[in-house]
Each structure stands twice: as structure tokens, then as C-alpha cells.
Amino acid sequence: MQTKYLALIICAILYFIALLISGLMALKYQQKHRPYRKVAEEYQRYWKVQKLKWMKTELLKPISTKFELPTGEKLYFVEENQSYIFDDKNRDLKELNKYGFGKYDQMENYYDEVEFMGFKSDYQLFGFKKRNFQAESKTMYVTNKRIIFDQDGIYQQIIFKDIVKAYIAIIYDNGNYFPGYIIHTQKCLYKIISSSPEITLIINQIKKMQQGDNNVSI
After folding, report:
1. Which residues cross the membrane (predicted)?
2. Tell me: the pLDDT tens digits for 64-101?
3. How far is CA 61 from the centre of its chain?
């Protein structure tokens, strides 16, 4: 009988220890991801309201440019002083490439149902340390052929043929979360801190219209 009672006491103690550990982990998880959730919820509310307005306007309307473009190329969007993070060696890219043509590509109804691009690294409690990047201020030009990043006369471009999709996302940079978006190519993620999420609509719309042209030069 004493052995039976002792076993019951040990089981009860282990049970309460497990409950305590689970409670502490849940509390830590909630505290750790509170900043992310706060920014994400605010951004999603903003996006839902503004998207309805943008969808009623003609987003693909050519605008003037300060530099000469090749024949047939038109400028549709310019974003000044946006913060840009180039990431080609991150587990987020591997995760997105793994599912990019599966569950993530089910976003063909993107214009009818809003979905934010979230990664495991946004929610994981242990076993992953977020990488810190030095965000760089650049000007981004979006044409019907490519996306051009300009940093004080140093140019980088993405041909539309190489783009998989653009997604609304929360961008992590040096301990803080910011609203922005991701331009996904097979080789890298372009993470952009921005207050102009409508660019994702423009990029995805052009992507559907264009087959791409690798012979475009800056």
C-alpha cells in the first residue's frame, strides 16, 4: 500500500511539474511574440481597409521617370528611402522554396482573401536565433520589365521572370518588427520595410501579365 501511495504521489508531483513548465513556456511564448503580434494585427487592419481603396484605382498607370527607359518599358511605381534587406542564406528562404508551389501558392485568390506571409522563425520559441541585418535605404523603381534598386547610383535589379511572388509580411530587423513585404525569388528573399504595401498588388499583377525579359539592362 505504501508503494502504491508513493507512486501516486510521484505521479501527481510530475503532473504538476509538467503543468508548471507548460504554463511558464506559454507565458514566455506570449511575451516573446507580443511585439510581433501587435505589429501584425495593426498592419493587417490597415491593409484590409486600404486594399479596398487600392483595388478601386488603376494601380498599373504609367508614371514619369527621371531616367530614360528602353523602348517598351514603363514605370509604374517609385518608393523613396525604403529600407531593404537582401537575404540569400536564411531558413525562411528554404521554407518558402519548399512550400512555394504548395500551400503558399494556394494564394491565387490573393486579391479576394488577405494572407500575410509568416514563417516558423516568427513563432518558434527555441532552437532558432533570428539573424540581424543592416537595413539599407534605397529607392525602388517598378517597371513592367523589372524592379530596380538604387542606392546612391549603385543599381541592382530583379527581372520579373525571376520573381515567384510578392507577399505582405512583417519584417524583423535588429530586434524590432516592421510592416513591409517580401519579394520572393528562387535564389533569395528581398525583405522590404515599407509603408506602401500596395506594391505587392502591382508586382503580382505585372507578374501575371509578363513573361519576363532577361535582356533588360540598367
Report:
1. 6-27
2. 877 788 888 999 999 886 777 666 556 666 666 665 54
3. 25
Q: Find how far residue 94's CA is from the centre of its chain.
A: 14
The set of cell numbers assigned to 65 is: 521617370
CA atoms of 146 and 142, how far apart (whole Å): 6
Domain positions in the chain: 52-209
Judged by phi (left if over 0) then psi (alpha if -120 to 50, else beta), residue 211 lies in alpha
Alpha carbon of 201 to those of 120, 183, 209: distances in Å?
A: 24, 12, 12
Q: Each residue of 21-59: pLDDT tens digit? A: 766 666 665 666 677 788 888 888 888 888 888 877 777
CB of 124 closer than 8 Å to CB of 130: no
Contact 180, 191 (CB under 8 A): yes
Which three cell numbers mark 55? Answer: 483595388
Asked if residue 61 lies in contact with residue 74, where contact means CB atoms within 8 angstroms, the answer is no
Task: Tell me what pLDDT residue 8 has.
Answer: 76
The CATH code belonging to domain 52-209 is 2.30.29.30
